[in-house]
């Protein structure tokens, strides 16, 4: 593995991700009014071409499927144009589960499919949103939630932590610089793809005005707990010092000011590319698993329900930090041990655990 090269990132497959991320779905459901508001500001009669929707970082599609149904219903009330929806994610994504969801073939989710809706055409792309995905001027509406905190590269590894929220000094500066460069790249790619008058609606993880971020809103710090249990494996001799060091998320939680910065300078590349910011605000979405515990769910049940939502998006990073020379069964056992330790921690002392979602919601318009 090359120095500072992150492991291939993927959400856990076979429908596991959306099944165990109720909070992520709540965030997207909360964005539906913002998406419908963006549609209301668009001139749908300006073109007879298909209304092209892009869902950037869609994972298995389960968390955003209700939004797409609402979006299709709104468009159908205003226009008869054909509608295309392209779900994008990284090449390692479980597109098989996505396709089965879209065709109503996932058990228990048969009614959520889009394949039988007249005039609606579904596609998928295994290309990162850090690159251009669509031809110039062909996307009518872009949407992304809980995805663009992933960086295009890992700028540094952290000796005492697993995430940039625990970084300091030069390491923190490196993460911040990478995040700024990536945000500029993301926006310029979307500016090329968007049709004139098109919109982007984004809900990105952030650090808000209170200093809160995903997994820390005043209680137990999720990322610090990750680090504690990963170091515990090293102390127990289960992983090597190099494996311990390699476990660093290629992520950064930007502030609202960092999200807004490219739009505030009229001479910036982003502004010159025709993008302008219409909406920008933060919102905290409470962890549904912690909420259930607070109203009486037993601690052990809370732990069994809560830890899978952490595992659904973090597992590939920790698994990728392990030496690939280890047998697959051995690596799987180490990862199971890691999450079992986290679950035991939550069950023994549940107060303060939870993964509240902290997002910056934005609507971005492309000049006509």
Describe this structure as you would to a colleague.
The structure is a single chain. The chain is of the alpha/beta class and 368 residues long. The protein has one domain: Rossmann fold, CATH 3.40.50.150. Helix content is 41%, strand content 16%. It has helices at residues 16-19, 22-40, 65-76, 95-102, 169-193, 222-235, 241-246, 256-264, 269-272, 288-294, 299-321, 328-348; strands spanning 51-56, 83-88, 120-125, 139-145, 194-205, 275-285, 357-366. The protein has a seven-stranded mixed β-sheet with strand order 3-2-1-4-5-7-6, with helices on both faces. Helix 11 (299-321) runs antiparallel to helix 12 (328-348). The longest helix has 25 residues, at 169-193. It starts with 15 loop residues before the first helix and ends with a strand.
